[in-house]
Amino acid sequence: MKIYHLNNISDFLLLLLCFLGDIGLASTGVKVKPICIEEERKALVSFKEDLTDPSRRLSSWVGHDCCQWERISCNNCTGHVAKIDLRNTYPHSTADEKWDDMEYEQSCLGGKINSSLLSLKHLYYLDLSWNNFEGIHIPKFFGELKTLRYLNISFAVFAG
Ligand SMILES: *[C@@H]1O[C@H](CO)[C@@H](O)[C@H](O)[C@H]1NC(C)=O
Ligand SMILES: *[C@@H]1O[C@H](CO)[C@@H](O)[C@H](O)[C@H]1NC(C)=O
Ligand SMILES: *[C@@H]1O[C@H](CO)[C@@H](O)[C@H](O)[C@H]1NC(C)=O
C-alpha cells in the first residue's frame, strides 16, 4: 500500500488523476511520466550551482524537466522530486588495483550545500556518500527536511 501526504487540494487532484490514470492506462501498458515542478527545478539548479563537479557528473541537469535528469527521481503521480542519489560510484576499495587518488578526487562532488533543497517539500531520499565536502559542517537545515526518510553522508568528509 502506498501512503501519500496531501498538503493541499491540488495535490489531492493530482493524486486522483494519477489513480484514474493508473486504472485506465495500466491495461494498455502506457506509462504516465511525471513532469518537473518549476519551483523544484530552480531549487535543484541553485543546489547544483553551489557544488563543485570537476567530472561533470551533473551535466544532465539542464533543461526544463528535472524528472528526466540523472540521479533525480520524481514521484510518478505528483511529479514532486522524491529522491536525489548522488552517491559517488567510483570503485571504493582502496585495496582495488584500479584505485587512483587523482581519479577519485576528480569524481567527487564538493563545495557547499545550498539550502534551496528546503523547497523540495517531498524529498524522502538524499545520498551524498563518497564525495568530498572538505570538512564543512553538516548543514543545520537538513533537520528541517521534514519528509526526509533516508540521508546518507557517509565518507563525504563532513564535520560535526
Ligand atoms: C543558494 O543559491 C542561490 C542562487 O544561486 C543564492 O542566491 C544563495 O545565496 C545560495 N544560498 C546559500 C545559503 O548559499
Ligand atoms: C516510477 O516508476 C518507475 C517505473 O514505472 C519506477 O522504476 C520508479 O521507481 C518509480 N519512481 C518512484 C519515485 O516511485
Ligand atoms: C551509506 O552509504 C555507504 C557508502 O555509499 C554505504 O556503504 C552504506 O551502505 C549506506 N548506508 C545505508 C544505511 O544505506
TrEMBL record:
Keyword terms, alphabetized: Glycoprotein, Leucine-rich repeat, Membrane, Receptor, Repeat, Signal, Transmembrane, Transmembrane helix
Domain of life: Eukaryota
Leucine-rich repeat-containing N-terminal plant-type domain sequence ranges: 38-75
Signal peptide as annotated in the record: 1-26
Topology in membrane: Single-pass type I membrane protein
Pfam families (alphabetical): LRRNT_2
Gene3D superfamilies: Ribonuclease Inhibitor
Gene Ontology CC entries for this record: membrane
Subcellular location: Membrane
Annotated SUPFAM superfamilies: L domain-like
Protein's name in the database: Leucine-rich repeat receptor-like protein CLAVATA2
